[in-house]
Design a protein that fits this description.
Layout lengths: L10 H5 L29 H10 L8 H12 L22 H4 L14 H25 L6 H11 L1 H7 L8 H18 L16 H10 L17 E2 L16 E2 L2 H12 L10 H4 L6 E3 L10 E5 L2 E7 L2 E4 L8 E4 L9 E3 L2
Antiparallel strand pairs: 1-2, 3-8, 4-5, 4-8, 5-6, 6-7
Helix pairs in contact: 2-3, 2-5, 3-8, 5-6, 6-7, 6-8, 9-10
Length: 346
């Protein structure tokens, strides 16, 4: 973000489940391909939850886009300071910060050098620019690709976009011209490639592999207590009736058993519809009980303790929707040699 701005989220490859990411942006259209879900392990772990949250504030701005911008802006240096005095991970100028900066981590200060504050402010800026750009594209006030417009706005301000009549032009200079392409070039690094789902979506693949593939397409979606059904994420029940530690109370996403319900339904083409209770899922007679950790296969469902359930990937890894304030992700898990509660469907 330049001085001119003041003018206005190993196992994956081993399972062989994913296709190559390809960005497809339509001219003069608000449609944007911005990477979907964050590829686990690609951003510093202390920033991952904030990148996911910042990239979930509007449909046009995704976690991989937030991460790609930070890559270009500061290369993940929270103390970055540009010659123009742009500050922090997201390179905010003093004149712009008050509009978008908040004390998001509730540490008593709003600071562009605070990574949580900076990442969330970046998401707010991008979403505000996207909303304005959609209106201006519809009215013909500007032309071009929505993503390019948002990126130019981030680099030199939305007034710069209006002066140009879109993302390309002379106002803002060469840096603003090249900024969208730099961010788009970084997107694949942070993007979880999409996988088709439905009956036979991995031709000839084992049932368990299909379970894993379905669950993996939901990486990065929010945990939502009571969320998830056979078709995908749903709006959950308020987490205990109060906002969680991230300030959210009602979200659209999955809880642990909702994710399992969805993945098994997708793998079976809707033939196996499990209960939404983890205890019912691991006791369902349509599945085969697995009691030996050495016999676990990808796609088996495991109840590590009462009240939680997840999907085995192999290599001591699982895909899960862990808890309130978190998101669907790959986690480490070493199954016990005794007392394993697991079941295999298909």
């Amino acid at each position: 973000m330049s001085a001119r701005i003041v003018s206005v989220f190993c196992v994956l490859s081993a399972l062989g489940l994913f296709v190559m990411f390809a960005a497809a942006l339509g001219s003069n259209s608000p449609a944007v391909s911005t990477g979907g879900s964050l590829l686990p392990g690609t951003v510093p772990p202390e920033y991952e939850a904030w990148v996911i949250k910042a990239g979930s504030q509007c449909t046009e701005i995704t976690p991989p886009l937030i991460a790609a911008q930070i890559d270009v802006e500061s290369n993940w240096n929270p103390r970055a300071l540009s010659p123009a005095r742009a500050k922090g991970l997201s390179q905010f100028m003093d004149g712009t910060w008050p509009t978008y900066g908040r004390d998001d981590d509730l540490n008593g200060r709003s600071d562009p050098f605070d990574p949580a504050d900076a990442i969330m402010a970046q998401g707010r800026f991008d979403c505000a620019a996207a909303e304005t750009a959609k209106r201006d594209l519809a009215s013909g006030r500007v032309t071009g690709e929505l993503l390019d417009i948002v990126m130019v706005a981030y680099n030199c301000g939305y007034g710069c976009v209006l002066d140009r009549g879109g993302p390309q032009g002379t106002t803002g200079g060469a840096e603003s011209d090249s900024y969208p392409s730099k961010v788009k070039a970084a997107l694949p690094k942070y993007s979880l490639p999409s996988t088709p789902v439905g009956p036979g979506f991995i031709p000839g693949g084992p049932f368990g592999t299909n379970v894993v593939a379905a669950a993996m397409t939901k990486i990065g979606l929010p945990y939502a207590w009571g969320g998830g059904d056979r078709n995908g994420p749903t709006r959950g029940i308020s987490d205990g009736g109060v906002a969680d530690s991230y300030g959210d109370s009602m979200k659209t996403g999955f809880d642990c058993s909702g994710l399992v319900l969805y993945a098994v339904a997708q793998a079976s083409g809707g033939a196996i519809l499990l209960s939404h209770l983890d205890s019912d899922q691991v006791a369902d007679p349509r599945g085969q009980r697995i009691s030996d950790p050495a016999q676990l296969q990808p796609g088996d469902i495991i109840q590590p303790h009462s009240g939680h359930i997840f999907i085995w990937l192999g290599n001591n890894s699982v895909v899960e929707a862990p808890q309130s304030g978190d998101f669907v992700k790959v986690s480490s898990y070493t199954p016990s040699a005794s007392g394993l509660v697991a079941r295999r469907f298909g």
